[in-house]
């Protein structure tokens, strides 16, 4: 199943409710929430209290991407705020398996994210425990960056591993996803696509979301 997860990092925060609802009307599958602490990545965004407020806007699954150091400290806070999926970085959690177990014990889906320079081998021991792997196709921290096309081999390798072992794991890509490259990313083997500026900087957010969805439906037979 191919899904779109609009990243509100690129939304207009003075008009955030309307922006989110426009993506929902356009057929968004998830709402992607990038939590940054200014330490793991060179940017600061928002935390659990903001997500708890946003939870009132829609019942779409909240896809919470923790770009923070020692994420295990805050898993319960984000669960209580309304997260449905929590993704943590391999590079940020010393005891990654324990953190994944913690997320799953709360009834949430668990994801692991890999920065561009981090090899798949670092999480092979976790493949039976996680629901999603997020391949960063930019260096994390800021929206609006260009896609690192060298991630093609990484995504394709991961898809082969998942398929060869009959694993039920989603592959999400985040960074530089645009209307003119989403079909290529789909061909690499990704099935969940985080889109930020490509949707939220459009004149018509709802229509643009529909365009991304249509791109994924095409040839999906």
What does this structure look like?
The active site is at 34 (proton acceptor), 174 (proton donor). Substrate binds at residues 7, 65, 141-144, 174-176, 196-197. The chain has an eight-stranded parallel sheet. With 221 residues, the protein is of the alpha/beta class. The model has no long low-confidence stretch (mean pLDDT 94). It has helices spanning 16-25, 48-54, 75-81, 96-105, 152-164, 182-188, 197-200, 205-217, and strands spanning 3-6, 31-36, 62-67, 85-89, 109-114, 132-136, 170-174, 192-195. Strand 3, helix 3 and strand 4 form a beta-alpha-beta unit.
Q: Helices and strands in order, then pairings?
A:
Layout: E1 3-6, H1 16-25, E2 31-36, H2 48-54, E3 62-67, H3 75-81, E4 85-89, H4 96-105, E5 109-114, E6 132-136, H5 152-164, E7 170-174, H6 182-188, E8 192-195, H7 197-200, H8 205-217
Parallel strand pairs: 1-8, 2-3, 3-4, 4-5, 5-6, 6-7, 7-8
Core attributes:
8 strands, 8 helices, TIM Barrel, globular, single chain, alpha/beta
Radius of gyration: 16 Å
Number of domains: 1
Backbone shape = globular
Number of helices: 8
Distance between the termini: 11 Å
In the CATH hierarchy, what is the architecture at level 2? Alpha-Beta Barrel
Largest sheet: 8 strands, parallel
Unreliable spans: none
Given the helix and strand composition, which structural class is it? alpha/beta
Instruction: Please provide the ordered H/E string of secondary-structure elements.
Output: EHEHEHEHEEHEHEHH
Beta percentage is: 15-25%
| CATH topology annotation | TIM Barrel
Count the E strands: 8
- Helical amount: 25-40%
Rounded mean pLDDT score: 94
**Spatial order of the strands forming the largest sheet:** 1-8-7-6-5-4-3-2
Using the coordinates above, name the CATH class. Answer: Alpha Beta
């Amino acid at each position: 199943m191919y899904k779109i997860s609009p990243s509100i990092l690129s939304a207009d925060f003075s008009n955030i409710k309307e922006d989110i609802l426009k993506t929902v009307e356009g057929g968004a599958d998830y709402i992607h929430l990038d939590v940054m602490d200014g330490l793991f990545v060179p940017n600061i965004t928002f935390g659990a209290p903001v997500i708890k407020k946003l939870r009132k806007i829609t019942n779409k699954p909240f896809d919470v991407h923790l770009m923070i150091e020692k994420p295990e400290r805050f898993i319960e806070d984000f669960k209580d705020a309304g997260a449905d999926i929590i993704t943590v970085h391999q590079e940020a959690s010393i005891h990654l398996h324990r953190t994944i177990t913690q997320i799953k014990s709360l009834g949430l889906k668990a994801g692991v994210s890999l920065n561009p320079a981090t090899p798949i081998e670092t999480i092979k021991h976790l493949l039976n425990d996680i629901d999603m792997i997020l391949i960063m196709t930019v260096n994390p921290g800021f929206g609006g960056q260009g896609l690192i096309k060298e991630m093609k081999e990484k995504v394709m390798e991961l898809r082969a591993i998942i398929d060869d072992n009959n694993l039920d794991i989603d592959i999400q890509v985040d960074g530089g996803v645009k209307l003119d490259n989403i079909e290529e990313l789909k061909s690499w083997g990704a099935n969940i696509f985080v889109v930020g500026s490509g949707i939220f900087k459009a004149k018509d957010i709802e229509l643009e979301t529909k365009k991304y969805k249509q791109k994924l439906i095409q040839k999906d037979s």
